[in-house]
Prior knowledge:
Layout (H helix, E strand, L loop, with lengths): L2 H4 L12 H14 L2 E6 L2 E7 L2 H9 L4 E2 L9 H6 L15 H13 L1 H5 L2 H17 L3 E3 H6 L2 H10 L6 H12 L14 H22 L5 H6 L2 E2 L2 E2 L2 H32 L1 H9 L4 H12 L4 E6 L3 E3 L2 E3 L4 E5 H4 L34 H15 L3 E6 L4 E2 L8 E3 L1 E6 L1
Helix pairs in contact: 7-17, 9-13, 10-11, 11-13, 13-15, 15-17
Amino acid sequence: MDSETAATVFTDPRAYADNERFYAATALLRRESPVYLVEHPKYNPFWAITKHDDVMTISRDAGLWINAPRTALGPKPKDESRQDIPIRSLVQMDAPDHPVYRHISADWFKPLGVRRLRARIEELAKRFVDQLADLGGECDFFVDVVSHYPLYVIMSLLGLPEEDFPRMLKLTQELFGADDEDLARKGDKQAHMAALIDFFQYFQTVIADRRANPTDDLGSVIANARINGELIGEMEAAGYYVLIATAGHDTTSSALAGGMHALLEHPDQWRRLSGDLSLVPTAFDEMIRWVSPVKQFMRTATEDTVVRGVPIAAGESVLLSYPSANRDEDVFENPDAFDVGRSPNRHVAFGFGAHYCLGTHLARLEGQALYAELVPRLRSIELAGTPEYMETLFVGGPKRLPIRYTMA
């Protein structure tokens, strides 16, 4: 395999469903071409950044490297259409707007704000482990359990009715799974945009309701936020909702399911965790590193610069490969080993810098609560079929994880 062949993993959704192929390719790129120009007829050119330190350096400098206009990799028409879409979420914003809008919900996601949710999260963790017990010893761990648990947490935070949760799950899977024929909206060539439009129509109703009947949930905080003295625009509020409602649960579900898959592939680590529940926090962080649910974000240079000796011109874009950075041999000892006690764990699965994931503390609390409840109650567990991963270019993890188990 040469660098040109290896770099095809970034433009092929199937590569992210094939861990062996993806990690072999990115290991080669880190070794031979850590800053590599990818040219593909379907996509505008970009530089693939595969080393941990380069991802960190670029993420730190939000002035030199901006999110707009190319937030994530997409085909050429998508790059062009972004200019015409009046909707922006935090991931599309740069300073001075980004810190102002981020502040709206920041207190809800800080450690103190998240700790207030501990009782509710632990209640939901028990509820879904009880549901696992009720399924009778065989199920799809992703479909039946962990695709729902973080969804219930984030929807409760937003104050949305439980009867709407299945709709939110389906729309999220259609949005992030637009490149996967099992998940994409059938018969719709613009599946991604169609799912996004449905999201916005739903949240426009929520905005109107929260403005007319404000409550004490995060949904009301967003709908009634003031930006420079003016009520937040409807499009910006809707973008805020979509970001929290999708990224707020889908990434955590991927880490929970991918983490279970890793434990089943590494039974020594399962035994280690079962014998010492104090390892749950480091184990979940290792699951996040291992899965890296957010596959990439992009940044665009505002002026001519150099990355690892490679000149990059103003206006050119880089793709930050988080899964590759999280297997960097220069940063992680035995990076291809799954280690529930890994410490320190300098993974960048939550990003870094100004756009560091808002929900980091919430995701950790959710993951730790579920595994702290689950592990002591499992007497045995094994795969009951072949796991399958989502074909994606952006966010994803397992889409099927069949298991067989016995519980106390």
